[in-house]
Amino acid sequence: MINPTERTPIIAIASGKGGAGKTSFTLNLCYQLSKLGKRVLVFDADIGLANIDVQLGISTMKDLSDVIQGFCNLEDIIARSEKGFDIIPGRSGFEKQPFLTTLERRDVLKRLRDIAGSYDFVFLDVAAGIDNEVLSFTKFADRTFLVTTPDPSSITDAYALIKLLKTKHEKENCEIVINQAGSLPEGKSTFAKVRMAAEKFLHVQVPLMGIVPYDRQYSTAVKLQQLTSIAFPNSDATQAIEKIAQVLSNEYGNRTTGHNVSRMGA
Q: What is the CATH number of domain 10-250?
């Protein structure tokens, strides 16, 4: 882990399987950190299926495709969410090339690192799955939060992602978020399964970042294009994410952001 005072942490949030609630968790975490006075940027790194702007109800004039084609710089497409944090809209529905080339990805990540110092936290909401693009983004990040659910297939896919990060990139800094847990005991049991498999077969330590309980209000908020943290501030899921945000805030409490970047209005 990097020294909290050295540079802005870039944290990838991944899931081995779709349906784990990764993006909703990411956005609610960003909101909770912004409530704590942190400057937060989230990059929609689900290339080809990017939809964070849609989930937040934001209409953006430009997205990552404009940067890739040389029409503007990365900082030019940063949009301000009324939720208190900034977003970099990804490239969605780009049929000719749904993925970034290696050179494009390197260029985007270099630009991202250059502007990261203007924030306290930068999050990469990567695609679900274990393809090379996901691995590249998680390799680049300083930390990786791996979101999984108690569903057996979700646990299996989470383990597969941990394995690939270890074997292909020698990266061992995955931290586990158990989402949609039916109860605290179920969340702890799910984490134990992931932890024991990683330790036994990969000799990798995977700490627990937090357990977020299943909450019907979570799904309701998503359908309404709202954040659970705003629509249902007293829900169990909101309180769990608040705790995770507080832990992160405490870890990097000595950081201060640098210069301001220009931002495009939503």
A: 3.40.50.300
User: Would you list the DSSP string of 8-76?
Assistant: --EEEEE-SSTTS-HHHHHHHHHHHHHHTT--EEEEEE-TBB--HHHHTT---S--HHHHHTTSS-GGG
Integer Cα distance of 71 and 58 in angstroms: 21
pTM for this entry: 0.90
* Both structure tokens of 73: 């710089």
The DSSP code for 15 is -
Distances (CA, A) of 147 to 31, 78, 194, 211: 18, 25, 11, 10
Domain boundaries, the chain: 10-250
pLDDT in tens, 107-119: 999 999 999 999 9
Q: Give the Cβ contact number of residue 5 at 10 Å.
A: 10
Report d(CA 196, CA 126) in Å as an integer.
Answer: 25
